Structures are given as structure tokens and as C-alpha cells.
Amino acid sequence: xxxxxxxxxxxxxxxxxxxxxxxxxxxxxxxxxxxxxxxxxxxxxxxxxxxxxxxxxxxxxxxxxxxxxxxxxxxxxxxxxxxxxxxxxxxxxxxxxxxxxxxxxxxxxxxxxxxxxxxxxxxxxxxxxxxxxxxxxxxxxxxxxxxxxxxxxxxxxxxxxxxxxxxxxxxxxxxxxxxxxxxxxxxxxxxxxxxxxxxxxxxxxxxxxxxxxxxxxxxxxxxxxxxxxxxxxxxxxxxxxxxxxxxxxxxxxxxxxxxxxxxxxxxxxxxxxxxxxxxxxxxxxxxxxxxxxxxxxxxxxxx
Length: 303
Description:
Shape: elongated
Order of helices and strands: EEEEHEHEEHHHEEEHEHE
EC number: 2.3.-.-
Protein name: GNAT family N-acetyltransferase
Strand order of the largest sheet: 1-2-3-4
InterPro entries: Acyl_CoA_acyltransferase, GNAT_dom
Pfam family, one: Acetyltransf_1
Keywords: Acyltransferase, Transferase
Number of helices: 7
């Protein structure tokens, strides 16, 4: 078999990425996304986009994504390969100079369709062969005006908090007993709970939406119940964060926070609201379902 050539693209040949046939089952292309390089006004940078070529033909490709101001990629969210070229895909990931999480986008209920399941499992196997490990599967939600707009419960009050140290304290409390796989991974690292809280805060600041939107939630007796962060990521309005402190759990406050976050964004003019939660986080998944958010995708995360 002809030797592989693996390299990054350049602004002059970024269109090479689109010569590969898109997967009809999984990945960003399966949901109507198109690869467009920053050289053509798009969101993918050619030097963060790599291809594996055999006889000049693309047999595997990967695109790492980052925000407009990021100096390094945030995530790998486009990875596929031709039939019989799984090892070429794995080798591409081994050689590319990025150690970032892989977000594999699949349709809701992907395990129920044999063809889709095979496509997902092939990509997971290739990423695993390249050294990644499965981290978590997540539900992705999208509220639109065609969905019911949930009513506020009135059980909590919400106030902005300008002091990041106060926000950090609440995040530490939330993450001290968390079902979130990414937070648990950060806690298991060298920085422990402090690193997990600061990582969350950094994400809030990274989002291109006003700091003034963040809200702490309080019970009628004035105790902190949690935090909700309405946000915009580069793709649009989203539920940035929902967290209930451990001592306030058991009352369904996650739903209250989600409703407040949703209605706040709609009042700011949002025409849709994106959200996500780990599939193992049953309380939050139940809150999204109760609030009228349909599951539109399932994402498989490997790190």
C-alpha cells in the first residue's frame, strides 16, 4: 500500500479538506455543517486542519476548532476516514501536534441504527487506537420557539455577583459533589477541586457574552442555592452552566435554574437556546426534559 503523507493544510490548499466524501451518519457534516477555512471567512484554521493523503487523495482528515481569539485549538470536532482507512485516521491523530478532546457528534438514539452505530464505533476505535480514552457521553439539547417556554417557579431569587472570588466559592461547593465527568476529571488531576472551579470560571469568561448575565440563586431564607450562567458561545445562545450547591439539593432547584436561564436568554432576544448534560446526570437530564428541551444529538467525548 502506498505510503501515507500526513500534513496540515495551508490557506492555499484548504479546499483539499472538502474533496473527501462527507459521512452521512455522524460528525458535523451529517448535521448540515460545512467545513470552511478562516482563509475563506469560515471557522477552521488551515494550520489546525490535517489530512492523510495516499497517492494524493485524502483518505483521512481531522479539524481542530478554537474560538476567534484562541491561540491554540479547544477541541477536535471533525474526524473521519475512508472505508478501510481506520489506521490512517489513527496515525493522523498520532502525528498531529494537538492533545485535545475529541467530540464525536452523533444523532439521538444512534445505537438503534446499525449503520450509524458502526460509523460511531469505527471512529471511537480509531481515536482509541491513537491513544485517546472514552470520557463521557452527553445529550445535546436545543430549545426553539416551537417548544413550550417553561414558567418561572418563583421559588428562588436571582442576583448578579460581580466578585469572581464569590463565584469561585460557589463553584467549589457545586463541584465538591458532582456528576459531571469533565469536572471530575479536573478534580482527579493535580489541581484538584480548585482547578475544576477555575476551569469553569475561565469558560464563563471565554464566552463572548456579558459578565453581568451571571446569576447566583438564593432561597427565601437568603442562603445560596446555586448558580446559573446564561451565555453565548461562538455558535450562539446557550445554557452556560447550571449548578446547585450540595446542601440545597433534593428540591429540584436544577429545574428552577434552567427555567430562569432559558427565559433570561429569550428575553435578551435568543431565537434558540442550546444546552447539554452528561447522560449519567439523571437529575439534570430530567430538568431539561421537563423544561421542554428536545434531545437533538448525542456527543461521545474522548480525551
